[in-house]
Design a protein that fits this description.
This protein is α+β, with helices and mostly antiparallel strands and 137 residues long. The protein contains five helices and eight strands. The strands form two sheets. A six-stranded antiparallel beta sheet has the order 1-7-8-4-3-5. Strands 2-6 form a two-stranded antiparallel sheet. A hairpin with a 5-residue loop joins strand 3 (32-35) and strand 4. The radius of gyration is 16 Å and the shape is globular.
Length: 137
């Protein structure tokens, strides 16, 4: 599965968004939304999310390592993960903690990034693009 493209759209006052159809179809049934490494959210297919978490935390999950810092990271990641369940109009409500983490406001940018979808506040995305442009001058 290769996800790509950039889509600009809006989050409504009830913190609901639409995942663009091309990206949503590629994610398949039951995608999950979690914190990204930047101030953005990532959406994986449920299978890929499981693979990503297992790869990162395999020794914690299988019990061979009991590092509390790693366990806290796993707890934080999974406690702030939600199913991307759509309402009848095809909107997904984003939980408040995730909205706050990604600094989402009304205008958002959704991009396909290889095997995942990233959801950015338009303001954060534009800042990042401007900084990248300035750096490359």
């Amino acid at each position: 599965m290769l996800l790509f493209g950039k889509y600009e759209h809006q989050m409504d006052e009830k913190k609901r968004i639409r995942i663009p159809v091309k990206l949503k179809d590629a994610l398949g049934a039951n995608p999950v939304i979690m914190k990204g490494t930047s101030p953005c959210l990532v959406v994986y297919s449920s299978e890929r999310a499981s693979e990503v978490i297992k790869a990162k935390f395999e020794k914690i999950i299988d019990g061979t390592v009991t590092d509390e810092d790693e366990m806290d990271l796993l707890r934080d990641l999974t406690s702030n993960t939600q199913n991307a369940e759509e309402d009848k109009q095809g909107r997904v409500k984003i939980e408040k903690d995730l909205v706050d983490y990604a600094r989402l406001k009304k205008d958002i940018v959704t991009i396909g990034v290889y095997d995942k979808v990233e959801i950015w506040s338009a303001e954060e995305w534009n800042k990042r693009q401007k900084a990248k442009s300035e750096k490359n001058k």
